[in-house]
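Recall that a protein's primary structure is simply its ordered list of amino acids. Everything else, from secondary elements to tertiary packing, is in principle encoded there. The following example makes that idea concrete.
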Amino acid sequence: MNKVISRGTILLCVFFGGWFLLQQVNWLGIFKINPLIRNEYVKKIEVKLGEMMFEDFTSRNSVVDDSLAVATIDSMVTKICDANNIDQKELKVYLLDSEEINAFALPNHQLMIYTGLVKKTSSPEALCGVIGHELAHIEKDHVMQSLVRELGIGTLFAIISGRSDLSMITEVGRIVSSSAFNRNMEKEADLVGLTYIQNAKIDPKPFAEFIGVIDDKNTPPSAFKWVSTHPFPKDRKEYLLQNIGKQRTNYKPVISSSTWETFKEIIEEE
């Protein structure tokens, strides 16, 4: 009996000791040094996490399937991707019916846009600014880097293998849709996102104006989750305008005004 207890104790020590050691490893450093390791292990975790998180979000918010609404969003995304050589084969963009004013990237090249955010944008250019920002997070691999940093590779593996409480996937979703990225990542996404939309001949100033309206002191901060979860100085509008630069660009309309109006009407009815 004592031998059984001793063996059990040893096994527990080995398990928790191994888990502890896994948590101490600088996985981000390893993945940056050896892309093969990153592709082989993290990609498998990323794909499964993406599937689980998509199911979690869509269980609480329905996917908008109106053909014109979907085509409008797709045309904006395609315009940005084509101008920046972004491969759309793995990219998946979803419009979700939610009054929350938010948009965010999920693992495995997924972009979620809430109808609440669309309702608050006054122009397709402003919406493209948000899309460009989130595409930058995806292209720069910020999502998985942040999750590995916040939770550790051991915890992520436990989640996808069913060895943790299912509520953990909701917690991971909360992290990704709220405070996943540090200030450096947010700044990079802003600068890269601006480059994306300028390369697509999309005027970035409406996006800066959109941020200015949201940052207005008379606006309840709780009403705009996308900005409240993207840590920037109060003068973010000025910061963006400075980085747009003085170089004149021949910007072109993203979509026709009639298409935008029809799109907004559809979203308002959701």
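The longest strand covers residues 92-96. DSSP finds 14 helices and three strands in the chain.
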